[in-house]
Amino acid sequence: MAKIGRKPWEPTAEDLSKMEALAARGLTEEQIARSLGIHPDTLRRKKKVYAEVVEAIQTGKAKGIADIANELYQSAKEGNTTAQIFFLKCRADWVEASRLEISGLDGKPIQLTAMTDEQLLRIARQGSQKALE
Questions:
Q1: How many domains does the chain have?
Q2: Mean predicted lDDT score pLDDT of the chain
Q3: 18, 35, 55, 93: which has the highest count of C-beta atoms within 10 A?
């Protein structure tokens, strides 16, 4: 008796090339599978059987990241301040420090870290009452 349903999908060289190109553009594995006309579960199963499938997706992801990283780097070198900041935050552990300064009713800065919970609650209540006035 003949099998009913689709013919089992086997990755061709064209499929592998397409997988690599789609992964380079940042598509998820589910999106790659749908683009190939197969179910995502089929792609997951074939990854276990065909090392070429895994390799195509990994290579594509690496190429996509390399392309964008190169563009970011070039943009930063050309003086794009936003690209420079982003690059340094990602690659040189730069961090923007935010500082919140609160002053009391007398206008003097309050050192929150040196206060007890009761003192903090009293200040919060005073501020909310002040806001209602």
A1: 2
A2: 88
A3: 18
